[in-house]
Amino acid sequence: MIYLDHNATTPPAPEVLDAMGPVFVTAWANASSQHGPGQDAKRVLGAARATAARALGCKTSELIFTSGATEANHMALTGLLAAARAQGRQRLLIGAVEHSALLRLARSLTEQGVPVDFMPVSPDGRIDLTAAEALMGPDLALVSLMAANNETGALMPVTEVAAMAHAAGAAMHVDATQWIGKLPFAFADYPADAVSLSAHKFHGPKGAGALLLRQGRAFVPPVPGSQERGRRGGTENLPAIVGLAAALERLGDLASQAEHVAGLRDALESGLAELPGLHVWCQGVPRLPGTSYLRFGMVDADVVLQRLSRLNVAASSGAACSSGGSEPSHVLTAMGVPRDEALCAIRFSLGDETRAEDIALLLNSLPALIEPLLSVATES
Ligand code: PLP
């Protein structure tokens, strides 16, 4: 199997499984209990927090463990908005191509009366900074922007948008789910007040993530409780937290890994370039190293995915959470891509364990599979 769907999820690393396994047996107690086993669990939790904080370049007090990035995003938006409301600020500004769960949350906040605006993207998939600037204002409570788009891989201008948000007196949240684990990151010198991440995007377990929250930033916990310094209630999922820490600890030199993965991605794109009608989105903009989002002429994505699975290649037609439906990607739609073109979108997302042989094999067999389809579905 050639797995090219790393933006959806990644296989857990052996080090992660080795670290998690014993926790179920030796540290199963409640880390809030005063007895011996509880105190053992508390020590394991503290050690995992220290490891994760070191890898993320944050203070241990800034790290709130969550069940993943969806929850971290939810906590950031609702917790920071509630805190800003006390200062008379209400409005939320988010990117138009955020993750679908964050967009759904924004819709539900709108229904609850929160004013929400969207920063549009240019046809190149990146936030239009002039339009973003025009949406800033003294009523703004919070700006939320993803660091990198999960479909196109486009890197967003976080530094510029954070500077605008802060100049307007608003807080800045970044959904860095697709960035962390693929590209270098340190919260200490990051321009945001809050950052979301998810362990399963970098070989950690599913159901484990974190919200990094800048020390001193006003925040009203959406799930009150005594854990996580009163910022997220609920007995800690210790095996998952230990797995998250182990996944962060094993990350190597991300800059050189990114260069290697981008080289394979570029080899894939140039190998496919001879196919008539090939179109790659966001090719000329800063992108995640392993992401290639493309269409083969006007061949429907579902047809291509079926052929790929016959080759034992796992890819995706866009955001995993919304695949299966026949609605075009909201990301491509926001970029102005027509519906019939968007329905042909295929995402290959390579990872650190993708091998040159995998790409060579794909390039050997793919053209023969695609060419007959191209002659049927001619460009309109
Ligand atoms: N944000 C982005 C940009 C993502 O790509 C994803 C996962 O696909 C999420 C959030 C949700 O992460 P999780 O699966 O940890 O809830």
UniProtKB/TrEMBL annotation:
Alphabetized, the UniProt keywords read:
Iron, Iron-sulfur, Metal-binding, Pyridoxal phosphate, Transferase
Aminotransferase class V domain boundaries: 2-361
Superkingdom, taxonomy of origin: Bacteria
One Gene Ontology molecular-function label: metal ion binding
Q: Name one Pfam family in it.
A: Aminotran_5
Q: Where do the TM regions start and end? A: none
Instruction: Kindly state which reaction or reactions the protein catalyses.
Output: (sulfur carrier)-H + L-cysteine = (sulfur carrier)-SH + L-alanine
Which InterPro entries does its entry note? Aminotrans_V_dom, Cysteine_dSase, PyrdxlP-dep_Trfase, PyrdxlP-dep_Trfase_major, PyrdxlP-dep_Trfase_small
Q: Which cofactor does it need?
A: pyridoxal 5'-phosphate
What is the protein name for this chain? Cysteine desulfurase
What taxonomic ancestry is recorded?
Bacteria, Pseudomonadati, Pseudomonadota, Betaproteobacteria, Burkholderiales
